[in-house]
Write a structure and sequence with these properties.
single chain, about 80 residues, alpha+beta, 4 helices, 3 strands
Length: about 80
């Protein structure tokens, strides 16, 4: 397996939200209900600590369930949303 392949890609299965941790599921639900948010806004809405949100966002992005881009208001932050 190459460094760019994911375990789920090798098995031919897609990672779904049910396969993720409870914190990743909560972050996903917050994005589902609130729409596009920054990491700080997600932490506020979910009441999770910033480190947990950062970890959950990484897992969700690795699973291609969410997308991100640089925030136009503050280039130090990114906006996250659920992929269509």
């Amino acid at each position: 397996m190459s460094a760019t392949e994911h375990d789920s890609d090798v098995e031919g299965e897609q990672t779904t939200i049910t396969d993720l941790s409870p914190s990743a599921k909560l972050v996903y639900k917050v994005l589902e209900y609130e729409g596009e948010l920054t990491q700080e806004e997600i932490a506020t809405e979910s009441r999770l600590c910033a480190r947990t949100v950062r970890y959950a966002l990484g897992k969700l992005e690795d699973s291609d369930l969410i997308a991100s881009r640089v925030c136009l208001d503050d280039a130090r932050q990114s906006n996250y949303w659920i992929r269509d």
